[in-house]
Amino acid sequence: MTEDTAVCADTEAFKHELLETLPHLRAFARGLSGRPDVADDLVQETAIKAWTARDRFTPGTSMRAWTFAILRNHYLSELRRNRRQVDYDQEAAERLLVKDADQEERLHLDDMQVALQELSPERREAVLLVGAGGFTYEEAAQISDCAIGTMKSRVARARSELATILNDENRSRKGQPRKPVKGKTD
Amino acid sequence: MEYALSQPTGPKIPKKKPDFNPDGKGGEPGWADGLRQLYNSVLQEPLPDSFDDLLKKLDKGKDD
User: Fold this and answer.
1) Beta carbons of A163 and B31 less than 8 angstroms apart
2) Which of B1, B2, B3, B5 has the most A C-beta neighbours within 10 Å, making it the best mutation to test the interface with A?
């Protein structure tokens, strides 16, 4: 095999692995942003960034972890630039407040999406990485560029907040008042 | 190369997602199951047509 052929094979392997990761990137981005259109933009931009930086990817390491880190960094950068956190689905958020008390006591995945958006970005990404994406605390900490202890703390607090928010969603359906969610920082 | 984020034009929530039980099962809180369902529901979606352009860019960029 010539050197050119080897490079071409590596490029094809990288592309194949990147494409296989796209659905996971979409799921992570959807959870982060709460908006399908914004999520797909994030994924496409992430894929282009990953492709451009493919020489820095170490074959044999996790493509998913590498691209998730690119996506979260890009997302947070866009968040700081555009303040997109105030631009999530307000209409869906308001649904939490207007549910009829006689609705059956089941929650919808849309409610989970809205509840996620009530978390701080750091806690949201933490619980998405560990609770949904299946990453270990160590992997998630590397993706989020923080200490393992910080990641564990973020996940624990995110879990607690989600439980409170979704429990209050049930309470509001029963006609009971919702409790405010406290603490949005580490 | 700069790729601007597009502004939303369509409905913000495409369709009603399935339910999950808030009480959970197997000793696990229901929201944990719901979180994974939310993630997995996106995994199962086909890639939208807008990704065709991405694939073309990757093909075109092979010789970069």
Assistant:
1) yes
2) B5
Per CATH, which fold does A1-88 belong to?
Rna Polymerase Sigma Factor; Chain: A (1.10.1740)
Average pLDDT, chain A: 81
Give the residue, B21 or A121, on which the prediction is more confident.
A121
User: How many Å lie between the alpha carbon of B62 and the closest alpha carbon of chain A?
Assistant: 7
Q: Model pTM? A: 0.74
pLDDT at B28 over 80: no
Q: Out of 1.10.10.10, 2.40.40.10, 1.10.1240.10, 3.10.450.60, select the CATH number for domain A97-186.
A: 1.10.10.10
Percent of chain A with pLDDT over 70: 72
Query: By CA distance, what is B38's nearest residue in A?
Result: A109
A131 touching B, CB under 8 A? Answer: yes
